[in-house]
């Protein structure tokens, strides 16, 4: 594995957001269409369902970590895949931030008192019909996670220094419905981070660390 912990701190990330600004929604949309321009589903982006995920960056003394989840194998969609906590934005949610925090409580019992949203990444449009707002947040240590087994099999942390090192980003492809789908992937130990989750991580890298 190739990564460095030094310098990849939560406070450094906060400074990067302050310098760049947090108005990610004004920037171009990222998503599956950038690597897969032939995906017909993405031509009708106005019909995409709004969703939000939390990108939880834990303020560890040795260097920041990012919380990820392993989705339950019993789920109908994206079962057994690595994901950020999140889901559809409900009518009662006041904002993408509110939706991301609510979903994080429901999925892994992450107490919002430990969580400080610092900004958004550009919306990420998926081939499955979602427009996802990634909400980046700094999480203070002291929390206890309790995965909801109906949705999450496990929650774990990956060093931010690993995820923000381009040497660990691979472009791969799989055959899907007769088309070659291209995507990013990152392998951390026995964890294979790919697809939408890797795409959002790549967005964070391109906007703040490239």
Protein architecture, described:
By secondary structure, the protein is α+β, with helices and mostly antiparallel strands. The protein has one domain (10-208): Nucleoside Triphosphate Pyrophosphohydrolase. It has 5 helices and 12 strands. It has helices spanning 10-20, 32-35, 96-108, 160-163, 195-208; strands at residues 30-31, 49-58, 65-71, 82-83, 86-88, 115-120, 124-125, 130-139, 152-159, 170-176, 179-188, 191-194. The longest helix is centred in the C-terminal third of the chain and has 14 residues, at 195-208.
Which outline best applies? globular
Strand content: 25-35%
Q: What's the CATH superfamily, by name?
A: Nucleoside Triphosphate Pyrophosphohydrolase
Mean pLDDT: 84
Task: Characterize the largest beta sheet: strand count, sense, and whether it forms a barrel.
Answer: 9 strands, mixed
Helix-strand topology string? HEHEEEEHEEEEHEEEH
Please indicate the count of domains.
1
The CATH class assignment is Alpha Beta
Distance between the termini: 19 Å
Instruction: Count helical runs.
Output: 5
CATH topology: Nucleoside Triphosphate Pyrophosphohydrolase
Helix/strand class? alpha+beta
Helix content: 10-25%
- How many β strands by DSSP? 12
How big is the Rg? 16 Å
Unreliable runs, pLDDT <50, ≥5 residues?
none
CATH architecture: Alpha-Beta Complex
């Amino acid at each position: 594995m190739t990564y460095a912990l030094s310098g990849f701190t939560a406070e450094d990330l906060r400074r990067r957001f302050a310098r760049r600004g947090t108005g990610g929604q004004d920037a171009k949309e990222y998503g599956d269409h950038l690597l897969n321009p032939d995906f017909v589903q993405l031509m009708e982006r106005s019909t995409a369902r709004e969703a939000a995920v939390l990108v939880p960056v834990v303020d560890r003394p040795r260097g920041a970590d990012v919380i990820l989840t392993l989705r339950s194998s019993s789920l109908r969609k994206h079962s057994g895949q690595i994901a950020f906590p999140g889901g559809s934005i409900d009518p009662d949610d006041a904002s993408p931030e509110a939706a991301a925090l609510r979903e994080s409580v429901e999925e892994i019992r992450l107490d919002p008192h430990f969580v400080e949203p610092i900004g958004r990444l550009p919306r990420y449009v998926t081939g499955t019909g979602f427009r996802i707002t990634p909400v980046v947040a700094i999480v203070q240590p002291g929390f206890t996670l309790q995965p909801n087994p109906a949705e999450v099999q496990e929650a774990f942390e990956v060093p931010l220094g690993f995820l923000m090192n381009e040497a660990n980003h691979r472009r791969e492809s799989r055959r899907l419905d007769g088309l070659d789908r291209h995507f990013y992937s990152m392998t951390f130990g026995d964890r294979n981070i790919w697809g939408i989750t890797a795409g959002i991580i790549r967005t964070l890298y391109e906007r703040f660390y490239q």
